[in-house]
């Protein structure tokens, strides 16, 4: 999913310095299988020009990478995507998008290090990929929310049916989104932050 057609933040995205009001920063990882929209999400929501490590896809990936549903995809992330968004005047999120092909999953452990939470992007055409993704987060103890990216040709299901299919706890938020739209991507991040806050409050009471 190419973010060239994504909504953009008003004004130029050339300022790399932190806002002077920022008092705290948190690392958030955007994870999911190949072609689910991770690069697009980082690109659509970042307030700075996003850093990407995309390379042109070649014939060498045929039979190695699962390109299902991505016939028009010409580039792929090989290390990470990086962006930044200010949630409040005091809180800034650093966004790290992970590579989707399984042969690059060895990079995930380093990207998970120090992460406050994660967004798991899901494509309803390839739900089975999400189990390994969520399993890796659970092994690392990284809390996450699930965002179902709305591809035009993907089947639509009630969210509670998807929760059951993904074997999600009733406490884990799941929502639909369109990662091409900045407002939609930001809503996902805000849902994650509210979820992390609720977990912190629960732990403080125990």
Automatic annotation (TrEMBL):
Domain of life: Bacteria
Coiled coil: none
GO molecular function: ATP binding; GTP binding; hydrolase activity
Keyword Translocase included in the entry's annotation: no
InterPro entries assigned: Gliding_Motility_GTPase (IPR052705), Gpn (IPR004130), P-loop_NTPase (IPR027417)
Alphabetized UniProt keyword annotations: ATP-binding, GTP-binding, Hydrolase, Nucleotide-binding
Transmembrane segments: none
Alphabetized PANTHER family for the sequence: ATP/GTP-BINDING PROTEIN-RELATED, GLIDING MOTILITY PROTEIN MGLA
Family of this protein: Belongs to the GPN-loop GTPase family.
Protein name: ATP-binding protein
Organism: Streptomyces sp. SID14436
Phylogenetic placement of the source organism: Bacteria, Bacillati, Actinomycetota, Actinomycetes, Kitasatosporales
């Amino acid at each position: 999913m190419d973010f060239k057609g994504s909504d953009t933040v008003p004004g130029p995205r050339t300022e790399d310095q932190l806002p002077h009001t920022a008092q705290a920063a948190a690392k958030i990882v955007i994870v999911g299988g190949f072609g689910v929209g991770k690069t697009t999400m980082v690109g659509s929501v970042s307030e700075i020009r996003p850093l990407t490590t995309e390379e042109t896809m070649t014939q060498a990936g045929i039979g190695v990478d699962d390109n299902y549903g991505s016939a028009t995809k010409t580039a792929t992330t090989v290390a990470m995507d990086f962006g930044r968004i200010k949630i409040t005047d005091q809180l800034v999120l650093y966004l790290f998008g992970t590579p989707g092909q399984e042969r690059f999953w060895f990079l995930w452990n380093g990207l998970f290090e120090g992460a406050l939470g994660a967004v798991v992007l899901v494509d309803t055409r390839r739900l089975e990929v999400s189990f390994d993704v969520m399993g890796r987060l659970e092994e690392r103890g990284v809390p996450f929310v699930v965002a179902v990216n709305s591809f035009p040709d993907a089947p639509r299901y009630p969210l509670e049916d998807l929760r059951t299919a993904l074997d999600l706890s009733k406490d884990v938020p799941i929502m639909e989104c369109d990662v091409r739209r900045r407002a939609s991507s930001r809503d996902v991040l805000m849902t994650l932050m509210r979820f992390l806050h609720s977990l912190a409050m629960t732990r403080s009471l125990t």
